[in-house]
Amino acid sequence: MQIEGTMQTTIPGVISCGMDVHKDKIDVCVRIGDGSPDGKVIEKVFSTMRRSLFELRDWLISLNCLTLHSKI
């Protein structure tokens, strides 16, 4: 399923991330796998404060997440 205004890709073994950015928080969802029900989904919420943004960056790097999907 593709939501209007977003790009969606399903590539086996890929780790991808979706973010919903608000004024005070960023909701993050990371999907590990090929999009099947067996895939793993991790959801976290980060503050928009500078320290938390660095934590978000470090967390995504630790998961080897190189793909970001965002609403346009």
Features:
alpha+beta
Q: In words, what does this structure look like?
A:
The chain starts with 14 loop residues before the first strand and ends with a strand. The protein has one helix spanning 50-62, and strands at 15-21, 25-32, 40-47, 67-70. The chain has one domain (15-70). It has a four-stranded mixed sheet with strand order 3-2-1-4, covered by helices on one side. It has 72 residues and is an alpha+beta fold. 18% of the residues lie in helices and 38% in strands. The protein contains one helix and four strands. A hairpin with a 3-residue loop joins strand 1 and strand 2.
| Computed structural class | alpha+beta
Choose one word for the global shape: globular
Task: Give the domain tally.
Answer: 1
Strand content: 35-45%
Give the helix proportion (percent range): 10-25%
Radius of gyration: 12 Å
The SSE string, one letter per element, is EEEHE
Overall mean pLDDT stands at 80
Low-confidence stretches: 1-10
Tell me the number of strands. 4
Query: How many H/I helical runs?
Result: 1
Largest sheet, in brief, is:
4 strands, mixed
Strand order in space, largest sheet? 3-2-1-4
Please summarize what this structure is:
By secondary structure, this protein is of the alpha+beta class. It is 18% helix and 38% strand.
